[in-house]
Amino acid sequence: MKILLSNASPHPIYEQIVSQVRSQILSGALKEGEALPSIRKLAQILQISVITTKRAYDELEREGLIDTVGGKGTFVASPNMEFLREKRVALVEAKLREAVAEAEMAGLAPEDLHQMLTLLLELEHA
Amino acid sequence: MPETLLAFRGVTKRWPAFQLEATDLDLPGGLILGLMGANGAGKTTLLKLLMGLVQPDGGVIQFKGMDLREGGAELRRRIAYVPDEPRFVPELRLRALKEAQARFYPDWDEARWKGLMADFGLDPAQKAGQLSLGMRTKFALSLALARSAELLVLDEPTTGLDPVFRRELLQRLSAEIQDERRAILFSTHITSDLEQRVDRVAFLRDGRLAFCQDQDALRDTWVLVKGGLDLLEPGIAGTFRGLRTTPFGFEALAEDGEGLRRRFEGRALLERASLEDIVVLMGKGTAHAA
Amino acid sequence: MLRSLLLRDLALHRRVLITAAILPFLLLILVVTVQGQEAKDMATALWILGLLVLAVLPHSLHLREDRLGTLIGLLTLPVARREVVRLRFLEGFLASLAFTTVYLTAWIVLRHPPRQEVLELVSTSAPLWLLLVFMAYPMPFVLRWGGKGLLGALGLLMAGFFLYVFLVMFGPRVLHVTWVAAFDGWLRHAAFPTYLSLGFTWGLPLLLGLTFYGVSCWTLERVDA
Q1: Domain extents for chain A?
Q2: pTM for the predicted model, two decimal places
Q3: Which top CATH class is A13-76?
Q4: Of A35, B22, B31, B180, which has the highest C-beta tally within 10 A?
Q5: What is the ipTM of this complex?
């Protein structure tokens, strides 16, 4: 597991932990059944509040990415593909929404945006 | 939620020159509570009330639900205290001073004390009179950490210490409370000490508790707003805290980050407030309409 | 707990205590130099002087802790404040007792005084009165106001003494004859118990001492350090 926290980031610390652990689970860098440090241990290592690490773990658990087994610890959950797919779609949608907002600010017409997306997709698949 | 280890309920102390107003505090097991405030805000008084050094004029202080005034002496066995600028009999060696104190605690761990002394670079054969303020604090810390007290109360434990040791100390403290039965309460006026591992922040201003909140929630709640003076309409300025204006713009704390983002639509800069921002700007008090 | 407190003081105030322990030997040197008829009076006077110094030993220990800033350490120990007061009283008693034992033993060994003289000295309640006046009575003042408290308490004592002397010399005859005379009698009899019942000379200072002990506890329990 690799976590890098930034105080300069606009995202709260717990969000930074959630997104980094999530992407490592989704990318397969963290495998199913792998143990994560305890809430307190993680807080000590990262030198952040236990409340923050607890919040991050709670969020990851809600997303079905990790499981806490009472008395044993916290482990990467067996992925629920349906759920993960939904999450990913939602993520793409959010990013696109951001791009649309940026495009509007830059004064791009909708056609220009469509064209740009098509071009990018072609490049990706080429 | 772990059990509440320490609770202040309406604790009041009145002196001719200073008052600590009805103070409520909660410290659950497993957490570190940082007590912030300028010099003279009442941090030391609050901790002395907890240790029974100062008698309250009102309110109760509870340790695990027991009144500290009634069971004080016995309960103090389970509390370790490092006073602000600790002092010792100068002509005595540290070993002798330790000996005099260790006798009172059945859970005294001699090996642990020796380890701490070595870690802190202190020699038991040294005389207390030869120690600098920072070294005296380290020695007091060694005495406090060498037993497994359930509550650690540290009054400005970082004064006189260099930044490297300060950081190490915080790591050591967070290692101390790997189980939920113990908690730490420490006071400091240095925000960077708290920025890190501290779970809950209490902020005293002129003897009044301005807030006592989880650091996480605190930093979620407050955003730092910066913008041009044209944005400062009377209605909005009233919701700001610690407003500071310059000829080029303003800076303030605000609670409703999302609302402001929509309202200002990119015309203002909204940042996550650091603890330092919160404490400095809150210390200025409520903003007056510009 | 009291034992731990005593051991703590033995370590922390080693210097003061060693100085105090030398006292009987210093005084004995003086005793040995006086020969003849005055020898007994000298022995008594120096014994009283030694006791006087030791009666304020608890105060000097407490004031020393105050000055060195270790009082905070003492009061945050897992010990009730009542115990701290008990410690101070005990220190006064133990020091006086130890001093008396060493001093009188040495006096007997060195000078072989008549049996009657020794008995007279041992059976007087004067040391108790000394402890009452110089240790127990100023204690609440010391605990509350520190060094200033001690000076104030002793000043008050002096004022009382001068008032007494004034009343004896110039007071109305009635006063003189009744309670002043009675008070005068107490003091005299305290030093020479053969004239008055032991219960009175020993019981009264003990009772007053207990009262001051109670007041001391009440005071320390309300002091802010």
Answers
A1: 13-76, 81-124
A2: 0.83
A3: mainly alpha
A4: B31
A5: 0.86
